[in-house]
Amino acid sequence: MRDVAIIGVGMIPFGRRDEDTLVDMLAYASMKALDDAGVDAVDALYVANMGGGVIQRQTAIASALVDRLSLLPAAADLVENGPASGGSAVKNGVLAVASGYYDVVLVAGGEKMREVTGWRATDFVATLTHPQTEYPYGITLPGMAGMFTRLYMEKYGVTREMLVEIAIKNQTMGALNPYAHVEMMITKEGVMDSPHSVVNNPPGATPLHLYDMCPVSDGAAALILCPLDRVKELTKNVPVIVAGFGQATDTHTLAEREDPTDLKAVTLAAQQAFERAKMKPEDISVAELHDAFTILEIAESEHVGFFKKGEGGKAVLAGKTKLGGQLPINVSGGLKARGHPVGATGVAQIVELTWQLRHELPKERQVKGAKAGFSINFGGFGNNVVAFVLKRGEK
Amino acid sequence: MRDVAIIGVGMIPFGRRDEDTLVDMLAYASMKALDDAGVDAVDALYVANMGGGVIQRQTAIASALVDRLSLLPAAADLVENGPASGGSAVKNGVLAVASGYYDVVLVAGGEKMREVTGWRATDFVATLTHPQTEYPYGITLPGMAGMFTRLYMEKYGVTREMLVEIAIKNQTMGALNPYAHVEMMITKEGVMDSPHSVVNNPPGATPLHLYDMCPVSDGAAALILCPLDRVKELTKNVPVIVAGFGQATDTHTLAEREDPTDLKAVTLAAQQAFERAKMKPEDISVAELHDAFTILEIAESEHVGFFKKGEGGKAVLAGKTKLGGQLPINVSGGLKARGHPVGATGVAQIVELTWQLRHELPKERQVKGAKAGFSINFGGFGNNVVAFVLKRGEK
Predicted confidence band at A189 (pLDDT cuts at 50, 70, 90)? Predict the structure, then answer.
């Protein structure tokens, strides 16, 4: 079991990228990561993508990418795990290096979702629901999130004000992130209390409104992994160490969970990641949580141990999760503002944390002196979750 | 880097399985593998599948399977690499165990292809071709194979008689394999020389005829991996050791290869597998090659070093690759007769080799005293190839 480091990262601006194919986007992000690391050959490549088959009707995308990047004859596989495909691909890249079989590994995540917008995008994501007990009844991910939100609000006293505060925080930070899809700042008056808010922020899946949900985005992100003991030979960058990771699953069908507010896979994945890293939630300087819906940022921050159950929403109102607060969460803007091209998200989270841990971001986005980062990539409605703990290494 | 062993295997009969969903098939094969090993929990699960998105419009199949098998909260990912998805999933399972992070790993490969038959099946497989330079021009995998066959025949003196001999050999063996899709025996007179052969064995992609091509099949296969040093504690089976593996890529577009008869990725993947195993082609007792088209059995047997270039076809005519010959190839019937449910194939090859190396097959199918096995799983048209070298271990 070798220690594994991230030595290069790259991302392309998320949003609407009509002019690029899926492989184009993966290639652009990969070239940035290769350039950033300063390497021009890899031993293996992993692609994270969920919708190539459903949306683009394209398979063998890893074979296409390895050739497009002139990285032949490197091994190339695609990893799919719904919206946690990115996390899973990074995990398998880490295993490939840790095993001793591969040294330099590229992981690229991407999704071209804007070919299916509106209900078609929601329907694409719903291809991950249970094909007999969920999909035929019309339940979608926003629908599940709405029901989850109602239960979580009742059980833990989460208020709509807390949710709105997350939307505002993440869109404010997203407006500072050149890679973010959503550049528009919002105010509490505009989305919550004014007569205009009914028009501007209509209910989507009650109690969730439009601004509680992530947009439908195109995008890609990539990173380069290598054994920690080869970092100095391969790159000039400060290495970021993959201190720990975790992955856990829960029932495919949401209705089968004894307590649907209990995101067991989130708790377990985080526990595994912290145990392997020999670290605790208190050691984390900056976190990227999977806020596809605002409620998830609160629920995840509690399930992974940053706050006690019922305290996550209060922490948001108290400004504890803002930049400059006790634990800045989604300084990138999160899925809410950066966007959520599903296959890209898990990789993009690690790219953002790498920038944070290398202290390379502009002052208005940098968590000062960040030493350790944490991410949750949330697959299905919490049925397959991947967590990472990253540490700033020595140059 | 830990040594990895296969301690359980399972397969369901390939063919037309209208009554089963894709997840049903994966679950049945997995339950057989778990039963065979004698384990009832795993740390991680890998699914190999190519067409879930394109054919079934279903994603997150690994999350569905892990729940269906009551293996929660095990980590679960899907691996896709076109027709070599099975080989890639097994490889990633091996890396997961070798890394030291996971001990007991289930790998299940499956495909439900009969929902799209005829040209639609060919069109589904063509989703792996280049979306700009190949697919729009109507080239399909049989088309590529036809052109490849013509060139290979001209360059290396392969004859139609040699191809027909492979079809007969593999269908004869398939008729003895209860897991094979094609149960019909064929004769040289029936498919090559008689007036009836024009009707019974029409040209498909000249010079390939109907019986040179694998059928469109549903099916699934699964296996259980663990560290070699935990075998005795976990199972009563003779372990089969993953002595080596290799994976290599080639140009996505067939037309870009300097010499299209040179399957570079096959050669490289085999070299890697033999080097890691510290073994040579001469050490192999039984091989499963990827005979989606009869020509590939000859071409692969030469590229991996079993025979010199130009000698593979002669070896077939001389009976060297039959059961009882110098090196029995595709005793299972191969893709030609067992069938080629694409995501299942790479796993099914390893399952067959495991039975061979455990000496468990009926006399008419068993390679006597088999000590080492070899497989080639051929993705794209040779653009992403996975090879394995397996060894019989000590009980």
Answer: confident
Query: A21, B131: Cβ pair inside 8 Å?
Result: yes
pLDDT above 90 (res B256): yes
Query: Quick one: average pLDDT of A334-360?
Result: 98
| pLDDT at A328 (0 to 100) | 98
Domains and CATH numbers, chain A: 4-117+218-234 (3.40.47.10)
Tokens 């993947």 identify what position? B269
Alpha-carbon separation of residue B64 from A132, A175, B55, B207 (angstroms): 11, 37, 17, 43
Is the pTM for the entire model greater than 0.90?
yes
Whether the CB-CB separation of B112 and B341 falls below 8 Å is answered with: yes
Q: Which residues are within 8 A (CB) of B118 and not within 5 positions of it... i.e. 6 or more apart? A: none
**Which of A201, A7, A21, A243 has the alpha carbon at shortest distance from A111?**
A21
Nearest to B63 among A56, A63, A380 (CB): A380
- Tell me which residue in A23, A73, A79 faces B250 most closely, judged by beta carbons: A73
Contacts of A58 in chain B (CB under 8 A): 127, 131
Q: Which of A67, A96, A249 has the CB atom closest to B251's CB atom?
A: A67
pLDDT at position A47 is 98
Chain B CB contacts of A250 under 8 Å are 67, 72-73
The residue among B21, B95, B381 with the most chain A CBs within 10 A of its CB, best to mutate, is B95
**Mean model confidence pLDDT for chain B:** 96
Residue given tokens 């000249």 in the structure block: B206
**Interchain pair B101, A100: CB under 8 A:** no
Quote the CA–CA distance of A48 and A107 in Å, as a whole number: 8
Contact list, B275 vs chain A (CB under 8 Å) = none
Which of B75, B96, B128 shows the shortest C-beta gap to A249?
A: B75
Residue B117 — pLDDT band, cuts 50, 70, 90?
A: confident
Average pLDDT in chain A: 96
H or E element at residue A63: helix A61-68
The verdict on a CB contact (< 8 Å) between B73 and A99 is no
Angstroms from B301 CA to nearest CA on chain A: 20
Nearest-by-CA chain B residue for A82: B60
Tell me: pLDDT of A63 over 90: yes
Residue numbers in B near A76 (CB within 8 A): 81, 247, 249, 384
Contact A77 B88 (CB under 8 A): yes
pLDDT of residue A193 exceeding 80, the answer is no
Distance of CA B136 to the CA centre of its chain: 28
Residue for token pair 């505009």 = A190
- The pLDDT tens digits for A75-127 are 999 999 999 999 999 999 999 999 999 999 999 999 999 999 889 999 999 99
Residue B199 has pLDDT above 80, yes or no: no
Residue A1: band (very low, low, confident or very high) from pLDDT cuts 50, 70, 90: confident
Q: CB distance B57–A54 less than 8 Å?
A: yes
- For residue B121, the surrounding DSSP H or E stretch is helix B119-125
**B198: confidence class by pLDDT, cuts 50, 70, 90:** confident
Cα separation of B18 and B31, whole Å? Answer: 20
Q: Work out the widest C-alpha separation in chain B, in whole angstroms.
A: 61
Q: How far apart are CA B321 and CA B313, in angstroms?
A: 10
CA distance readout (Å), A93 to A245, A374, B15, B96, B248: 12, 18, 35, 10, 16
CB A381, CB A292: distance < 8 Å:
no
Terminal alpha carbon distance of chain A: 22
Structure tokens at A337: 């503002």
Contact between A36 and B35 (Cβ < 8 Å): no
Per-residue pLDDT of A302-345, as tens digits, reads 999 999 999 999 999 999 999 999 999 999 999 999 999 999 99
Q: Are A62 and A356 within 8 A, CB to CB? A: no
